[in-house]
Design brief:
Number of strands: 2
Shape: globular
Helix content: 25-40%
Order of helices and strands: EHEH
Number of domains: 2
Largest sheet: 2 strands, parallel
Radius of gyration: 13 Å
Strand content: 15-25%
Length: about 60
């Protein structure tokens, strides 16, 4: 089963949830604020992504600016 890591107030996450449910995809919803990933998970994600750590920053978001 796939995991969807989200923040409840994120509109992109809400769209992803809606899309997955409409398609009947089984997934596990993980709230990043109440259940954040541990250091090992983060390192693994960063190492697996082609853009590295920069892929995990929303450069168009208010907090980034």
């Amino acid at each position: 089963m796939k995991r969807l890591y989200c923040i409840a107030t994120c509109t992109t996450c809400k769209k992803a949830v809606k899309d997955l449910e409409e398609r009947g995809v089984d997934y596990e919803y993980v709230d990043l604020k109440s259940d954040p990933p541990n250091k090992e998970e983060l390192r693994s994600w960063i190492n697996k992504h082609p853009k590295g750590i920069s892929a995990f920053f929303n450069t168009s978001g208010i907090l980034y600016r």
